[in-house]
Design brief:
The chain is mainly alpha-helical and 90 residues long. The protein is 61% helix and 0% strand. The termini are far apart.
Length: 90
Amino acid sequence: MNILSLKIPALRDRREDIVPLAYHILVQLSRTWNINYEEFKQRINNETWKQLLTYSWPGNIPELANVLSRIVLLEDNSAVLNQLKSTLHL
């Protein structure tokens, strides 16, 4: 039974939502892993934000959540950024 159908544009078409979604995901991750949210936020520098905003997110929000998880777990986001650059979908 389909009571309500919602059509939500892809994340690549809603770039203005990336930063608020990322912060929301970081809050959830900090609670899940019991790590300070401010510490998580500091692991994402300006270059990382640029990459996150220019990537096309073919996997939408679940892919964003996975990338943010890797960034905060690895503490060195260069490997994650290099992977995004190598698979850049514009």
